[in-house]
Amino acid sequence: MEIVYNLVVVLHLVGMAIIVGGYIAVLRAPKILPGMWHGALTQLVTGLALVGMRESGAVDGEEPLNHAKIGVKLVVALVVAVLVFRGRKRTDVPAGTVHAIGGLALLNVLVAAVWE
Ligand code: HEM
User: Fold this and answer.
1) Ligand 1 pocket: which residues have CB below 6 Å?
2) How confident is the model over 43-94, as pLDDT tens digits?
3) pLDDT digits (tens, 9 = 90+) for 32-41
4) Residue extents of the structural domains in the chain
5) Segment 39-43 long-range contacts (CB within 8 Å, at least 24 positions apart)
6) Is residue 69 within 8 Å of residue 111, measured between CB atoms?
7) From atom 40 of ligand 1, which residue's Cα is the shortest distance away?
């Protein structure tokens, strides 16, 4: 099961790269790229899959999950997904919305890396 868990972690990192990389690519001319929607969905699906595998005891050698941290990440990821979904077919998305998407995705990276 460890190999499956590690592969889902890789997908989780790819989803993060799609959102954060997409945001950095449009920093000077803010807009929502179609891939950002796929990245946001990837984060929700793979994040919940990681939690499921950890909580079910299917993965050995991992510490117990911090539920407060996971709860914060889930709420932040849901806000990112809603913002991307609502703006994904529009050409007049305010720059602030795009910065909120990129900033919140980066906030989740910070939470993942810094919060024990
Ligand atoms: C924009 C959304 C998100 C971003 C950018 C993000 C980013 C990251 C990053 C960078 C890692 C570190 C991977 C590692 O080296 O171990 C990680 C781990 C993880 N994420 Fe996410 N994540 C997001 C959403 C979610 C969601 C919605 C969940 C679950 C509800 C979740 C659950 C997890 C879990 C369980 C881990 C591995 C355990 C840990 O390190 O705490 N993530 N995430």
Assistant:
1) 9, 12-13, 16, 19, 43-44, 47-48, 50-51, 70, 73-74, 77, 80, 105, 108-109, 112
2) 999 999 999 999 998 898 888 999 999 999 999 999 999 999 999 999 999 9
3) 999 999 999 9
4) 2-114
5) 39/15, 40/15, 40/77, 40/80, 40/81, 40/84, 40/85, 41/15, 41/81, 42/11, 42/12, 42/14, 42/15, 42/18, 43/12, 43/15, 43/16, 43/19, 43/77, 43/80, 43/81, 43/108
6) yes
7) 112
